Structures are given as C-alpha cells and as structure tokens.
C-alpha cells in the first residue's frame, strides 16, 4: 500500500472526492483516508505520480508520506 500525505482534507466530502477520483482511474483501488493524520493509503496498480496528480486535481496538496 502506498501512503500519501494530503493537505486540505477536512470532512466527509473531501474523503469522497479523493476516493472517487482514484476509483474513477482504477475501479479496483482500495482507498483508506485518515483525516486526523492527513493521510491517504492507496492499494492500486496506479503509479504514485498518477495518484498524486488525481488528488491534486481535486484541489488538495499530496506527496508520498
């Protein structure tokens, strides 16, 4: 599982937006969001760069944790 540090997520809407963005790219992706830790864990065939790009397109700042 790849873990990303994501800034800007504050609520359930943020969780859904990030999860849906990643699952739109890889329908079998497993996405686990920890709002308190500001982390997103992703189990997917997508590259880290593509995951960061998808999260960034939703309006959040992301980098590998």
Condensed summary:
The protein is of the alpha+beta class and 65 residues long. Helices cover 37% and strands 31% of the residues.
Q: How would you characterize the largest beta sheet? A: 4 strands, antiparallel
Q: What does the average pLDDT come to? A: 96
How many domains in all? 1
Judging from the principal axes of the Cα atoms, what is the shape?
globular
Assign a percent range to the helix content.
Answer: 25-40%
Order of the strands making up the biggest sheet: 2-3-1-4
| Top CATH class | Alpha Beta
What is CATH's topology name? Alpha-Beta Plaits
Beginning-to-end CA distance, first to last residue? 11 Å
- CATH architecture label: 2-Layer Sandwich
- The count of helical stretches stands at 2
Q: Strand tally, please?
A: 4
Extract low-pLDDT stretches.
none
Question: What amount of the residues lies in strands?
Answer: 25-35%
What structural category characterises the helix and strand content? alpha+beta
Order of helices and strands: EHEEHE
Kindly provide the radius of gyration, computed on alpha-carbon positions and rounded to a whole number of angstroms: 10 Å
How is the topology of this model organized?
Layout (H helix, E strand, L loop, with lengths): L1 E6 L4 H14 L4 E5 L4 E5 L4 H10 L3 E4 L1
Antiparallel strand pairs: 1-3, 1-4, 2-3
Question: Could you explain the architecture of this structure?
Answer:
The chain is of the alpha+beta class. It has one domain (2-64): Alpha-Beta Plaits (2-Layer Sandwich), CATH 3.30.70. 37% of the residues lie in helices and 31% in strands. The protein has two helices and four strands; from the N terminus they run E-H-E-E-H-E. The protein has helices at residues 12-25, 48-57, and strands at 2-7, 30-34, 39-43, 61-64. The protein has a four-stranded antiparallel β-sheet, covered by helices on one side. The longest helix is centred in the N-terminal third of the chain and has 14 residues, at 12-25. The model has no long low-confidence stretch (mean pLDDT 96).
């Amino acid at each position: 599982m790849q873990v990303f540090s994501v800034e800007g997520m504050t609520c359930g809407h943020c969780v859904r937006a990030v999860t849906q963005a990643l699952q739109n790219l890889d329908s079998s992706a497993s996405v686990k969001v920890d709002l308190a830790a500001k982390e997103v864990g992703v189990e997917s065939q997508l590259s880290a760069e593509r995951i960061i790009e998808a999260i960034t397109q939703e309006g959040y700042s992301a980098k590998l944790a």
